[in-house]
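I am still getting used to backbone structure tokens and would like to learn alongside you. Would you supply a protein for us yourself, any chain you care to pick? Start from the sequence, derive the backbone structure tokens from it, and show both lines together. Go ahead whenever you are ready, and we will take it from there.
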Amino acid sequence: APNEGELPQYYIEGHHEPIIAPEEWEKVQSIIQKRSEAFKQLNYQKYSKDQHKNSSFTEKLYCGECGNVLGYERSLERRGSNGTKEINRWVCRLAEKYYAVNGCSSQRFHQDYLEKHFINLLKGFEQDE
């Protein structure tokens, strides 16, 4: 069981050979720090956890291959010095489980594709009247 301050804790120097040499450890920490500072300067937009950008389609879309619910994923694609592009996709929740025994082989599709075909569907209803 981990000791979270209930018992005295001791630090013994030179007890065993380190897994990583101290110089290498410092180099890695320096690289991590530089990357962290560079990332902070990119000024990415973040959505709050309770903001559901695509709530209109959530829990309403199902995989045509296996019948599982489709989930939404959002990512940012870096575009060099031009900034970033937001990528919105829908994916079968079973297809993204790489080690599932009976996984689904359906592919992700972009939000733009969904919106385009949804609008065409609505236009079809208008023309039928």
